[in-house]
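Hi all, long-time lurker, first post. I run a small reading group and we've been trying to get comfortable going from sequence to structure in the token notation. Rather than ask abstract questions, I figured I'd post a concrete chain and ask someone more experienced to write out its structure so we can walk through it together at our next meeting. Sequence below, copied exactly:
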Amino acid sequence: MEQIFDRIYIDSDICNGKPIIRGKRITVQTVMEFLSAGETAEEILNQYPSLEPEDITACMRYATELMNHSFIIKRAVA
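-- Answer (accepted) --
Happy to help. Here is the structure in token form:
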């Protein structure tokens, strides 16, 4: 398991190698999807009692850090 950010890890054996929170089977993507759907941090913590408030903050910081990179979106050829 490789720590890539505060509280965020990648393990190829867990969740198909997606970034996860502290070795749990909870992905950063899952937390960000809940937040983008309007869930509050408190609601997420109630749904996932093993998480800590700092885990949600780490997910947001990780997602923000990803935006520091340039991306090119290619259109699919039909």
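A couple of things your group might point at:
The longest strand covers residues 2-5.
The CA atoms of residues 2 and 68 lie 21 Å apart.
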